[in-house]
Design goal:
alpha+beta, three-stranded antiparallel β-sheet
């Protein structure tokens, strides 16, 4: 299992404070049939909560989920040895061909579909830009990439549709393609885990991968209550009740970022400019029950974050997220009417704007 680095420990501790505030209400009764287990996968804290099952069975089910997460983390890792990194080596030598691991085909196809749906704002093919900005590592330092290198990658226009899969072989039409599924993998893992629990007959569970959360059933006689991380303070800025099959996810500039000359640069890169997106602290999307709710909770927030205050609403709706919220760089909050009905803010004095 992936070990924490020094920098990660600080981020995990911050998230742990938030997680504790979220879950205290869930575990107030010591005799409740609630089993919880934590781990550290996908570069973040993971927690699985199962309600209504015996401890031995719940522990076994959770152990399988966490083992699956470890395996996914290995083969979907963007820069450490694994299936995806080996594919990226082939892409870089386009039009070289190689045999593809069958399990990668549906992921690439789905990521391509979502990228096209977003109009290219969600673009996992820009891994070279992400690496250029120093975000392919467990630790990262302030960097100022050569503008000429950024411009070169922009001219190459890497996109998911450059990837060709034919039979058991794959190749890229564009050597600039480097796939980074960091904005997809956590959501995919949520869907896989939820499907597994349903197949095992589990009715009530909550799976949380670093703030990307999916719910099954409810917590006893009440819905699962989850928190939305405050982008600038420890703890949650708001809570909501997550219903059966719903998923929620947040993209923010507060976990993987660096500051240079007083300016914050986060890991969410705008594929149009080649630079980290600016003007937004966080975007949260709430996805209704559907087959790929977990994936959408991960992927749908990215285009809205990149589109910024002027285009976030259209970008979210294009991805099928009718319940969404944006916090801009001044801390002002914009949210859809549907999201406003679901959310409870934990502090007063917030400046809210309801988007039509």
């Amino acid at each position: 299992m992936k070990r924490e680095t020094t920098g990660n420990r600080a981020r995990v501790f911050t998230f742990w404070l938030i997680l504790v505030s979220m879950m205290l209400g869930l575990s107030g009764c010591a005799k409740e049939p609630l089993y919880q287990q934590q781990s550290y996968v996908f570069g973040t804290l993971v927690e699985v909560s199962i309600y209504g099952e015996g401890e031995v069975r719940a522990k076994q089910l959770t152990g399988q989920i966490l083992a699956d997460f470890d395996q996914m983390h290995e083969y979907l890792h963007a820069w450490k040895p694994g299936s995806l990194s080996r594919m990226n080596e082939i892409f870089a030598n386009a039009p070289a061909k190689a045999a593809i691991q069958p399990g990668m085909i549906p992921l690439l196809e789905d990521a391509t579909r979502l990228s096209e749906q977003s109009g290219g704002l969600f673009n996992p093919a820009i891994g070279n830009l992400i690496r250029l900005w120093g975000f392919h590592g467990d630790e990262f330092q302030p960097v100022r990439p050569d503008p000429a290198e950024i411009a070169k990658l922009l001219r190459a226009e890497p996109k998911m549709s450059d990837i060709v899969v034919k039979g058991i072989e794959f190749h890229s039409k564009n050597p600039a393609v480097r796939v980074d599924l960091g904005g997809y993998a956590k959501g995919y893992a949520l869907d896989v885990a939820a499907d597994y629990l349903r197949a095992q007959g589990v009715k009530n569970a909550l799976i949380n991968i670093g703030g990307n959360i999916i719910a099954l059933g409810q917590h006893g006689k009440r819905p699962w209550q989850v928190g939305i991380q405050h982008p600038r303070k420890p703890g949650a800025i708001a809570t909501l009740e997550l219903r059966d099959g719903e998923a929620i996810g947040t993209s923010g500039d507060y976990q993987r970022y660096f500051e240079l000359d007083g300016k914050r640069y986060c890991h969410i890169i705008d594929p149009r400019s080649g630079y980290p997106a600016q003007g937004v602290q966080a975007v949260t999307v709430l996805i209704s029950k559907r087959g790929n709710a977990g994936v959408l909770s991960d992927a749908a927030s990215k285009p809205a974050f990149i589109a910024g205050k002027s285009g976030w609403l259209e970008a979210a709706r294009k991805m099928g997220a009718q319940q969404a919220m944006l916090i801009d760089d001044r801390g002002e909050i914009y949210l859809t009417p549907a999201m406003k009905k679901r959310i409870t803010f934990l502090e007063t004095g917030l400046k809210l704007h309801e988007s039509p």
